[in-house]
Amino acid sequence: MNKILKNMVEVALYVAIIVALAVGTPKALVYVMGTEYPVASITSGSMWPVLKKGDMVLIRSVDRSQLAVGDIIVYKNSDALVGDNTGFTIHRIVEMNENNLVTKGDANNIKDAAITYDKIVGRTVNFNSKPVRIPQIGKLTIWISEMK
What angle do CA 93, 97, 100 make, to 5 degrees? Predict the structure, then answer.
């Protein structure tokens, strides 16, 4: 009987740890990265070869004064608004002006329309000047969004 109780407590502890990780990790990322959108899935080939469709990237909040031409940013794309869902674009800054900036996908031939700084969600987390990316993990998010 004592062994059964011990096994039940161990299983309950493991379940509690898994639940804590599943709930706590996203909340911790929001806190650490300073944005409510700390991860993003790459859903197109517009940033190829640096970012590939299906990659997942980490996003950190960034102050306007810390931005520079060449940074890869995530911004709210008002053209992609569908109901309550806001679309996001992940592209590289190619021009910065006083009131707005212009981005472009590395694989695209034309620049995007200018956006205001308040649309920026964050900048990719980089290591050795390259965005930290987790290959293939973003495909799960893409698959789930296509099921809706």
Answer: 75
Report field, pTM of the whole predicted structure over 0.85: no
**Cα–Cα distance for residue pair 18/125, rounded to 1 Å:** 26
Of 111, 108, 35, 123, which is closest to residue 71 (Cα–Cα)?
123
pLDDT (tens digit per residue) in 3-52:
888 899 999 999 989 888 877 887 888 888 999 999 999 999 999 999 99
Cα-only R_g, the chain? 19
Instruction: Specify the amino acid at residue 44.
Output: S
For residue 123, list its beta bridge partners. Answer: 60, 73
Residues 6 or more apart whose CB falls under 8 angstroms from that of 142 comprise 41, 43, 53, 54
Given the candidates 2.160.10.10, 1.20.1250.20, 3.40.50.1100, 2.10.109.10, the CATH classification of the domain at 39-147 is 2.10.109.10
Rounded to whole angstroms, how far apart are CA atoms 102 and 115? 6
**Is the separation of the CB atoms in 107 and 47 below 8 Å?**
yes
Domain boundary assignment for the chain:
1-33, 39-147
